[in-house]
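Reading is simple: the token line describes the chain's fold. The lines below illustrate.

. . .
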Amino acid sequence: MTYSRALQLVTYLLLLAGFSAMLAASAVGPGWGAVYLMLIVCTAWLGPLRAGRLWHGLAIAFCLIAFLADWILISGIVAAAVHLLLLLSLYKAVTREKDSDYLALYLMSLGFLLIASTYTLSISYLVFLVLFVFLAVLAFVLFESRRAYRENPRADFSLSSFLQISLIITLLTTVLAVPIFLAVPRTALGWWGSSESRMVGFSDSIRLGEFGRILQNPEVVMRVVVNRPVEQLPPDLKWRGVALNQFDGRAWFNTLQSRQERMADARGRFLVDSRRRQSENLLEQTFYMEPFTNVVFGAPSVIQLSGFSGRVSHVTVDGNRAISVHPRPLEPIRYFIHSDLRDRADVIRAIDRDGSIPGHIAESFLELPELDPRIAQLTAALTDEAPTPLERALSIEAYLKGPQFHYSLRDPSGSSPDPLADFLFTTREGHCEYFATAMAVMLRIAGIPSRIVNGFRRGEFNPWGGYLIVRESDAHSWVEAYFPGGGWLEFDPTPTRLSVRSGFLLQIADQFLDSLNVFWAEVVTFDRIKQLGFFFRVRSALVSGWRGAWDRLSGLDGFGWADSGRAGLPGRLLGPVMTLGVLVAGFVVFRERRRLRLLWRRRVKGRSPDVTCGYYEELMLILERRGFKKSRFETPLEFSKRVSEQLETDLPVAITETYYRARFGAHETTIEDLDRLRTSLRQLRAIRV
């Protein structure tokens, strides 16, 4: 491969690396990506085209007009800026001719990478970042060599040498950047997550059918770490979010929006439920949640919250026991929750069959709109033979989970004037929102207070990271019914959903990549608090390790000094003596590094290469510092003879002749040669000019 082709290839690869980062971050859609890649291939095949000033001006004007039209009529300013950068990069790729054109392409590729960072900083972005750094180093090394190859176009070109240099520079840059990354103070990145994303189903209202939009999306919304093995968790464990109490026939609303504020105590804890709980029923959870809502999720019933990361000032609890944080987070947050996993059998045993429903409960959770009369008839048929409210509720739940109903992500009843009646008597098909609504309405007809709850199923366990992955597709609706004496009891009338799982290897790979994303998120948000904790842990480990080594090395019994009256002195001297020994050993190794290298290559590798070049370079450095500079027309021996005449010593000639014999005369360097060279250089340094 010639130099010019290598430069063009690396320039295109660098441009594509930045563009691929944007594509992976969803900064551009797949349609734009396919078109851009096709045009880049065409420009590479056609080669550079010459364009005059007029064409340059027309092209820039066209790009600006397209940017304004895109901004005002089609996209927002961010998307329009991305499209403008794509157009300019294509134009520069077609008309690349001058050095400034190559530099412009390099800057545009950097712009692609920066735009991608504003959309995501996932592990995929890290991969493209490392690739971009390597290609950028390679491109600039090749670009800096452009003048030399112009002057001598017949010079040999080896791309492998440039690749090796670029790889070494990239590795050194990475090694030097890691300590700086750990030490530089910063705050958590507020732009890491999208501040505009808001998921339906977790606000104060929702229409029937809307909840199904998110059930087909596999995007991860939270990760949960619990203090129990996953096998010991209830199989029907759910993460409770919001509850809605009023139904108008087509939508649910939260009319109990009066929120009680909870302030943190001195330890940063928010107490939600002050009732006393049994400690053996507590479940500790750590949530790592994406910024799609300000609702706090947790296993029912939440007792206490703590450990919020991010800008959380206070917590509120509404009349439906939904918890919210304020202000709404614009970045991923972490929090801890303690919940009381109340056993269902205990709640059922506590129900008072003769108890009455409190007035405020009946007022808020028994109200019904005008309904299709068939719903009341169906409810009566299901509950006439059930003597107690609990048995009536269980009868309704069993009917909805029966074989006559089917779970589906489609929404066949959404367009009906009465979606609930259409679901119960016509389609008998829908997702969890329809089943929960049907049961809640029939419970109210039967005189049992009820509400629907929106949250998530417990999710998929990731063995790589030891946490539960909760996706949008795990969103779920269920029912809570009130019974005097027992309180609110959970019911789930939705039939078992047959989840479509990917292959075993794909599932393992997906879990592994998700654990990498979690690790990279911790790296990206390595703020000042995490830095201090990290350095404190490192210091503690070093101190404890040094003390342990000190105790083992200075054990007086091992030295036979335990019975001596001067037992403390050797222990006190051991540290300084060891330090001095390490320094002396390091100095000896540095001083005899050439001799050691010769012995290593001769004894271990079985060959004796030329090592006199280093001594000759040292000679040239000494002479240059003394004002002697070799001319382009002098041979090394001619230069050393001229210097020897001026310094009145034959040391430069002797060193050069030894170098000649080793370099051009196939003379095997010996230890005596090295001693003679080192002595000659020392004598040369002592000569005063």
